[in-house]
Design goal:
The protein has helices spanning 30-39, 55-64, 77-88, 101-109, 135-146, 170-181, 195-203, 216-225, 240-244, 298-309, 323-332; strands at 11-14, 21-22, 25-26, 44-48, 74-76, 94-98, 113-115, 124-127, 150-153, 159-160, 167-168, 187-188, 209-213, 229-233, 254-256, 277-278, 281-286, 289-294, 318-320. The protein is an alpha/beta fold and 337 residues long. The chain has three domains: 5-49 and 192-267, HAD superfamily/HAD-like (Rossmann fold, 3-Layer(aba) Sandwich), CATH 3.40.50.1000; 78-188, Rossmann fold (3-Layer(aba) Sandwich), CATH 3.40.50; 273-332, no CATH class. α9 links the parallel β14 and β15. It is globular and about 65 Å long. The chain starts with 10 loop residues before the first strand and ends in a 5-residue tail after the last helix. Residues 279-333 form the GCN5-related N-acetyltransferase-like domain. GO terms for molecular function: hydrolase activity. Keywords: Hydrolase. This is HAD-IIA family hydrolase.
Length: 337
């Protein structure tokens, strides 16, 4: 067996937005990474908080991008939410759906009745991301929750990654109702809750899964909660400054620039990095301050700095002592421009 990072795991669970694609464009190297895992006979699952597509639609989208996928490999927060609603409600119960048609279809297929008005007397509200969600359906949802309906959120991602930068996600839409109702949802189904991760591990009979994500507050925190190893890739929402400041429950096992890190030695990505120096970089600590010197691979510098910031050095107390280090820290937003 080869000794690259992925070879130690019997299942790789991919997040989608920010890991495999951005909106509708594949991220460079994603298709190649998936095919290499398949060539190594490593099972693959795709777990996404995005509730705007069904599993078959997600698989079709991936295949259309050149990333191989089967519907059975895809777990969505829409499907998981509908399954949970079906467990808790009687067959045929009316559920007010805030979100895309995919979420309505999942609710319908779960044996429940999707509705869109308080007059339909919904016993639950399920809220997921949908690009057409507007004031009218949010108002109906607020009225239904006030009337006693149980409020389910497929996820609370504040943003969605895109080639143009972060866009409002379902968490931003949930915040509208949170403000109007002055309360939290009764149930949040998707990441960072551990359900999607544990379901994937159960489906594939995995004893040692690896979860890959781009968000510390959902993908990585969810993996930590599910007691799984995780890899943060820097192709989506969370960046180096976020990782340096990450609390314990949002710290990944590994970090890599992109999915090619799966096929490099695990010790090249493990967090935190070795103390002192590595790969042309050197971190010197003086009490509650630290300095970065040298040049080289930015991920190596990031791992070295995690070793000190995760041990108490504030991110604001990091300085640079070489031009390359200064340029890198400025690009991360760690130093003032």
């Amino acid at each position: 067996m080869s000794d690259h990072l992925a070879s130690s795991y019997d299942l790789v669970i991919f997040d989608l937005d920010g890991v495999v694609f951005l909106i509708d464009k594949p991220i460079t190297g994603a298709a190649e990474a998936v095919e290499r895992l398949r060539a190594d006979a490593t099972p693959i699952a795709y777990a996404t908080n995005n509730a705007s597509r069904r599993a078959a639609d997600v698989a079709a989208l991936l295949n259309g991008m050149g990333v191989s996928a089967e519907p059975a490999e895809v777990l969505t927060s829409a499907g998981a939410s509908a399954a949970l609603l079906a467990e808790r409600l009687p067959a045929g119960a009316p559920v007010l759906v805030v979100g895309a048609e995919a979420l309505r279809a999942e609710v319908r297929d779960a044996g429940l009745t999707p509705v869109d008005s308080l007059e339909d007397e919904p016993v639950a509200v399920v809220q997921g991301y949908g690009p057409e969600v507007g004031w009218k359906i949010l108002a109906e949802a607020a009225l239904a929750v006030r009337a006693g309906a149980t409020w389910f959120a497929t996820n609370t991602d504040r943003t969605l990654p895109s080639p143009r930068g972060p866009l409002p996600g379902n968490g931003s839409l949930v915040a509208v109702l949170r403000t109007a109702l002055d309360r939290e949802p009764d149930v949040v189904v998707g990441k960072p809750q551990p359900g999607l991760f544990r379901t994937a591990a159960t489906l594939f009979k995995s004893q040692r899964p690896l979860s890959i994500g781009d968000r510390l507050d959902t993908d990585i925190q969810g993996a930590v909660t599910a007691e799984m190893d995780s890899l943060l890739v820097l192709t989506g929402v969370s960046g180096p400054a976020d990782l340096l400041a990450a609390p314990e429950d949002r710290r990944p096992t590994y970090v890599a620039a992109d999915l090619s890190g799966l096929f490099r030695p695990a010790d090249d990505a493990r967090l935190p990095g070795p103390g002192g120096e590595s790969g042309g970089w050197r971190v010197t600590r003086d009490g509650d301050r630290a300095a970065l010197d040298g040049s080289g691979d930015p991920v190596v510098a990031l791992r070295l700095l995690c070793a000190v910031t995760w041990d108490g050095v504030p991110v604001s107390a990091i300085t640079a002592t070489s031009p390359e280090a200064e340029e890198l820290l400025r690009s991360w937003g760690v130093l003032d421009s």
